[in-house]
Each structure stands twice: as C-alpha cells, then as structure tokens.
Amino acid sequence: MASVPSPSPPLHHTTSRTTHRTQSSQPWHAHLTLDLLLRVLSNTLFHPFISALLPLCLRALAAPYTSPSFITTSAFAICVSLYWILEPMNRRIAYGGPRKINWEDEVVVITGGLGGLGGCLAEIFALRGVEVAVLDIAVARTKETKKDGQDVSDGEEKEGVRYYCCDVGDHEEVKTVWARVTEDLGMPTVLINNAAIVNGKLFMKLEREELERLLYVNTMSHFQLAKMFLADLLSTGTGGTLVTVSSVLAHQGAANLSVYAASKAAVTACHKCLSAELAGFAPQIKTILVAPGQLDTQLFGNVKLRGFLRNFLAPVVGAGEVAVKIVEMVDRGDGGVVSLPAYARWIAWMGVLPVGVQRVLREWAGVDSQFAIPSQEEDKIGPSSPGEKRLKDEG
C-alpha cells in the first residue's frame, strides 16, 4: 500500500470523553520533571548541531587542537553525533523496516475505548478519517437500555467511531462482535488491546471468581483477540500493527495489586514472544508494547504524589500524551516500545540492585502504600453492567 498523499490532521492531546486533572489543581513544581529536563537537554546540549558548536567556538577563540578543552568538546560532539546516527540503526535492526500506511485502508479496533487512554486513541484516529471500532462492556446493549453515563449504544456511530458492546472476557461474545466489526468496517489492520480490570485487594481476600475474571479480561482476551487479528492478516499477507497495553507494574508489582501485576507481566511476556515469532515469518506485522506509569485519569485520582523529588522522578503522565506517542509510531509503520515517563523505560534495571536497596527505594517511593485502594473499581469510562468489574484503560 502506498502512503497517504494528503497530510494528516494534527494530533490532539486531549479528549472530550476523558476526565483529567486540570493544570490549575497541580502545584507549581509538578511541571518540573525529569522528562522535561531530558527533553530540554536532547534539544540543546545533547543535540548534534549544538554539541558541534562547542569545539568550533573554541577554535574561533584560537584554542589549540591539543588543548584539553578542545579535545574534550570534540570527543563529546563525536559521541553525541554517533548516538543520533546509531539510534535509528538500532531501531531498524530491532524492529525491521516500517510498513507502509494508507489511512484510507486502515481499520482500527480498540478495546476499552470509551475513555482514558483508549478514548484518546479513538478520538485521534477518528480525526484522521480512519475506520475505528471500540469494544467496551460499558456501551449500552440497546438505545432503550441506556443508563446514566452511557452516551452510546451497541452499533452506534458517533464522531467517526463505531461502538460495540462487548465483554472481552467472554470468548463467544468476542468472536461474535469481531465478525460484526469485520462485516461493518472491513478487516482490522490495527488492534489495540487496551481493556483491563483492576481490584485493589489483599491477596488473601481475593475470591476465585475475581481471580478468574481478572485473568480472563486482562490476559486471555489479549490471546484471543491477537489470534483472530493475526489470522486475518496472515491469510491475506496484509500488513498490520498489534498494540499491547501493559504497565510498569509488570516489572515492579505493588501491594494489593498481585493479580493485576501478574496479568500485565503475562501480556508483556506474551508480546515479546509474539514479536520474535512475527519478525521471522511476518515482518509486515508490527508490534508495539505500551508500558506507561501513572496516568492522569480517574482510576488513579486517589493516588497522590508526595514531595517534589518523587514528582520530579515519577510524574503523572497525560493519557493524551501517551496516545499521541502510540499514534505517531503507528503512523510511521514502526514497531517498538512506548514507555512514559522516563523512569518507566529504566524500571526493569531496578531488579539488578541489591534486594535491600530495592526495599529502601520502594519504601521511599511509597509504591506499596499508593495502591492501597478499596476493592471497588474506579474507572474512566462510566458505569458497567450490574455485578460486572469495570473496564479501564491502562496506566
């Protein structure tokens, strides 16, 4: 497929369906973060053009070639330039060449897309004129059964997005809805496995039904949807993109989230294995792993950052910001990993530290106390059916 000739609409960082913390509610230091510092440095001191100016300025001041300052700045400029040259090569070797994107031919399926990260993704793709299908249990079964907080019903199209009521933890219902999506919109070429449920409970208080339900929705649904998605693409040889939404908790669990963290570790491991398989016989199918930290959604509304340094190292990330990164990667036809904020990219390295140091860091960060939330689920997409655990988008 040839790339679309017309320019794409600008990416938006917010969505009308998602409730975020307003900037006015944040303290002034909330905007001073490690991510901001790294972004500034990458566009200034660690930019090849700026770093190359340092030895040139010294030469303009008649500094000799053998002076320590000239040698140091020259070595620094060379290292920075090599990084900028080798980084694209590293991505190309790791994930292969990009697939060609024609948005007029793409069909995007998003699970748990009524709000939060999924809602942002649905809105951005819809603005691009892409066929978008949202599978969510919070969608009303019929127009007559709409409840408070339910704006759309099954099969309804709104603002360029087609909504389907679907319990992704129900194997037979997923197959039925998938067939409807294919018939209504065409063969899906982008699948975003985003829906999940969470219950913050002590391990010993988890009931078997809760455990099974959570694993079916958070883990088994990824397997089923990915298999149906890949079966269609592999049978036709069409390129596509599979997006798996995981969490930093897949690497570092937290108290009261044992099953949730285990389910996210499972989908992360599955994604890596599947990526290795597809790289061998289906390089036209790209895979993207999303492992964000805390998002600014209602789900984490009760989780409060404590102190300037904690906020500096682990800031709350806007769901729209993560969505834009995902769409940009899909737009380029690339595979890869989306991890925001910066610490989420390095969290796995914490495992190499001495266990005592890890414990001290966890105590300082308040990891095991931040998620001591009540057992009821807080979600970003409105009420679910009676007795049903609420679907959420990842954070």
UniProtKB/TrEMBL annotation:
Gene3D superfamilies xref list:
NAD(P)-binding Rossmann-like Domain
Q: Which residues form the Ketoreductase domain?
A: 106-294
Keyword list (alphabetical) reads: Membrane, Oxidoreductase, Transmembrane, Transmembrane helix
Where are the compositionally biased (Basic and acidic residues) regions?
377-395
Name one matching Pfam family.
adh_short
Annotated spans, Disordered: 1-24, 375-395
InterPro entries found in the cross-reference section: KR_dom, NAD(P)-bd_dom_sf, SDR_fam
- Name the domain of life: Eukaryota
* Coiled-coil stretches noted in the UniProt entry, renumbered to this chain: none
Membrane-crossing ranges are 68-86, 107-127
Where is composition skewed (Pro residues) in this entry?
1-10
User: What family does this chain come from, according to its entry?
Assistant: Belongs to the short-chain dehydrogenases/reductases (SDR) family.
Q: What is this protein called?
A: Ketoreductase domain-containing protein
Which species? Lepraria finkii
